[in-house]
Design brief:
single chain; alpha/beta; two-stranded antiparallel ribbon; about 40% helix; 13 helices
């Protein structure tokens, strides 16, 4: 039985998008739906989703209930669709509960009317941008192959001018992973204060299936990954470089999702990101036609739980297959992970990324294992110091200045520790 709150990533326009990003794995999802089927969430599906989701979350004790609108590209559904969604949320919201909305967009269609709507209804908007112009346009053209950077930056300006809370979502790929400080400083100079760095890895069609572990090449990575996939070492070094820059001047000023999550875990709190939790199954995906899937990374026929218009959402979420899916993350850990001294930092990572051959040879290892080793072993002493300050009751606004006063000493101690352990 599902006895804790869960999240849904709803895709009102299904996998449809107005960009043609080289690394996108959503576009192939169009094959799941008949060509005659309109890629638009109907009023019936929308109200069933909102009504059942609120009811289920409220019954589980949640009083702040969050909706997540994604895609494909969610703006394709039009602003009228989301105005109706807000009306239905208000209609079905019980007394004492609060509704929040998060909206992930590529920004291409964002105009003044969207910004006014987001501000009026307090939407949190995630804007996809991969860094400066040359890095962004390298992988994110529109359907005609034209660059999109200028349109995205215009959207960022419009959202900021209207006071819309805006996150930058950066896909870390083979190109921008080599320029971490250029990416970070650009985002900072552009006014973004909340950053998410999402690593990209996709295997080619001639690679091994998820259930097996392909042999490694001399660099220690799976041979069948696309040429835009970030290399594990590069991603680890990317995070390490950004972390050092963040430590030097931006603690308490800029929020980097992964750093926040690792700090939460250092404090002994549950992981705020499913990738790093011991088990999964609490972050599902809802397609435009009401089909519910185990996870946004697993929108494949074998992971379809059912349709919310045919079966109550609560029954689908608490089904035996979904519970088994969530528990399998922990049950399928290779011996390498079970023996790892920093296992709590990632708990084996997302199962979709487990396709490296482990040293133990029993079960596949996460592609980003080396990334985690590089970053976390470097960041650990600093995270522990920040956690110590936080636990002492010091106001959050003062954590940065205290860290600055101790940064040289912390670096010296960390350097001595690394030398000793070599």
């Amino acid at each position: 039985m599902q006895n804790q709150p869960y999240t849904l990533m709803a895709k009102p326009a299904g996998p449809l998008c107005n960009l043609d990003c080289k690394y996108c794995y959503y576009l192939e999802k169009e094959q799941l739906f008949p060509s005659r089927s309109p890629m638009h969430m109907s009023e019936l599906v929308l109200e069933r989703y909102i009504k059942d989701y609120i009811k289920q979350q409220y019954s589980l004790g949640l009083r702040q209930i969050g909706f997540n609108w994604q895609g494909g590209e969610p703006t394709i559904s039009g602003i009228a669709f989301y105005k109706r969604a807000v009306e239905l949320q208000q209609k079905h919201c019980p007394k004492g509960a609060k509704i929040t909305n998060a909206f992930q967009t590529n920004g291409i269609l964002i105009e003044e009317n969207w910004a006014r709507f987001f501000k009026e209804h307090d939407f949190l908007v995630g804007l996809s941008i991969d860094g400066p112009k040359e890095l962004h346009d390298a992988n994110r053209p529109d359907k005609a192959g034209r660059p999109t950077f200028d349109k995205v930056m215009r959207a960022a300006q419009i959202l900021q001018e209207h006071g819309v809370a805006t996150n930058a979502l950066v896909t870390v790929n083979r190109a921008n992973a080599k320029k971490p400080l250029q990416v970070y400083r650009f985002l900072k100079a552009s006014g973004f204060r909340f950053l998410q760095f999402i690593p990209i890895v996709e295997r080619t069609l001639d690679g091994s299936s998820l259930a097996s572990a392909p042999q490694l090449d001399e660099d220690g990575i799976a041979p069948f990954v696309t040429d835009w996939s970030v290399l594990p070492r590069d991603y680890g070094q990317f995070l390490k470089a950004v972390f050092d820059e963040w430590l030097a001047s931006d603690v308490g000023k800029i929020s980097v999702q992964l750093f926040d999550v690792q700090l939460e875990q250092t404090l002994g709190l549950p992981a705020g990101l499913c990738w790093f939790a011991p088990t999964c199954g609490n972050a599902l995906a809802l397609e435009h036609n009401g089909d519910l899937y185990a996870c946004d990374h697993y929108v494949y026929p074998q992971y379809k739980l059912g349709n919310i218009c045919e079966t109550p959402m609560g029954d689908l979420v608490s089904s035996e297959s979904q519970l088994a899916f969530g528990q399998d993350k922990q049950a399928s850990l290779p011996q390498d992970c079970l023996n790892c001294d920093i296992r709590a930092a990632c708990n084996g990572g997302c199962p979709k990324h487990r396709f490296l051959k482990a040293k133990s040879g029993d079960k596949p290892l996460n592609y980003y294992c080396r990334s985690t080793q590089i970053f976390y072993r470097h960041a650990k002493p600093y995270l522990e110091f920040i956690a110590q300050i936080y636990q002492s009751g010091v106001p959050v606004s003062q954590i940065g200045p205290i860290l600055q006063q101790n940064l040289v000493q912390l670096r010296n101690e960390a350097s001595k520790s690394r030398t000793k352990n070599k």
